[in-house]
Amino acid sequence: MSIIPVYENKKAPCFSQDANGQSGCPALNDIPGFLFALSQRNFAQAFEILKLTNPFSGGCGRFCDHPCEYSCNRGKLDSPVNIRELERFVSDYAFQNNMLPEKVTKSINKSVAIAGAGPAGLSCAYFLKKHGFHVDVFEKENMAGGMMAQGIPIFRYPSEILQWEIDYIKALGVNIFTGRPIGKNEIMDFQKKYDYVIIATGAHKSRKLGIPGEYSKAVIIGVDFLKTLNLNMQFRQSNGDTSLINDMDAGESVAVIGGGYTAIDVARTAARMGKKVTIYYRRNKKDMKIHPGEVEECEKEGILFQYYLNPYEISQKTNPDGTTSLKLEKMTPGEPGSDGKATIMSSGEFIEVQTHYIIKAIGETPDLKFLGNDFSIQNNTIELNGSKKPLYIAGDARFGYARDVGMVVRAVASGRNTATDIIGDYSGIKPTWYTENKIAYFHTIKSRYFKKAARLRTNTLKRSSTKNSFKEMRLPLNEHEAVYGASRCFYCGICVQCDWCYHYSSGAIAKTEKSWSGLRIEKYFKFIADRVNISTRDAVEACPRNAMGFVDIDNFDTSPDVLNQYASSNNSIPTPPIKISRAAKSNTK
User: Which CATH number fits domain 11-99+437-475: 1.10.220.10, 1.10.1060.10, 3.40.920.10, 3.30.2350.10?
Assistant: First the structure.
């Protein structure tokens, strides 16, 4: 086989897919790229790399369930990089320096109306505007943000950070109109005025318990509880003022039903209001759909957990002491189901507890009744009776019945994908976010070049500081910690000018003297074609990050990208470049 060496960037598992098929970052953040810029203390560049793919990096750096860290190659050497905390550090740097984009001046004379100013709708607007579309977003509430503003407590996502990220989108030229409820008539009107219409109204409707007494006065819907509190607090404070707590009765007991993010957020919010909180979940701890370590953090805040208990009946009567009776059935684990979780079965045994409030937080679904009754969802579009063209749909409005409802990073990805579909419909060519099709798995990384280094420890407020306070719970990294944490990254699949190939090449590779830009299309070295020989293979295989490879020139139509990587000793471009007539070794550790 005749081969030639080339520089070829690859995707890292943290933002694409690991060897077990687990997906990395749904938003497709260039994690190695922003981390390398951070390691060089180029914080603004790191932020700009993040903003290529995620308009809500400040939020995701706080509350994301960070699937990227589960796919991190570094975890196979010692422990994963603190990607989420580092994303927060970079975004906080931009916030503190009030970094905003220049307004987009490019225009393609196409307009888009988006119903819903949540993470999916705003992300869709963000990417479409950057492409030149005129974008108007309509939100029924008096503030933008959707569930980010209504459902995520401010101790997770401070309102000033959310507002800055919304302002970033508006600075591009996106128009956001609040206090604008949308019904079928408005949608039909939008279709006359705009070239494209997108439904991104999220999933705000609470699932039903389906038990007697569900509509008792003591029962509160979790998302409504958070929404009421958040919207009030957004207006009453901006710097940690928690005066709203004083409006609530402390010392009362709260039973939270559920095992997901809403249940946890409800419980931690109620605990901060001085309530005595117990979470009841029908499965066990490991089946809860929450961040690792979340239960332990809740327990430090005084929240109790009771597992294998399913609500059975709620009394309609109030006890003399103001409590209500909640009857729960004990459950027992059975055989694993198709999802790997153990099935649960009724034991026929019951317990009864007395509590002041019962908050149901068992998940949310989309509510599209404002479209009427005659519509159907087909992939990413809605066929609406009376409409001449389909509507696009994005975010939890589309995926509301899926397991990952409420995950902001997935809503961002859905918004981007919808924008990509519209751009493709308009131009005939869908934009691609990365040209690489290979992934730099751990076995392709030269891990022998990297020393083991401890993962950063995330510090949190003491429990005494969280009581009666809505201050941010997790403490930020300082600059020294952030640079150290970013330096632990392998920077899998990308050239970071480490010069290993240059030193191994025996003069067959020359530097271009270009500064590292973060652009994946940039090449920082050239092969000197008339000096390339069989030993150049060693220079390729020496790359610690697997940012180099080989092309089978006998079966490959050499592209300009490959030819441009070559020069001759007298600076002419050789055609074709010199070949190595020997197969490369496998690129392993």
Answer: 1.10.1060.10
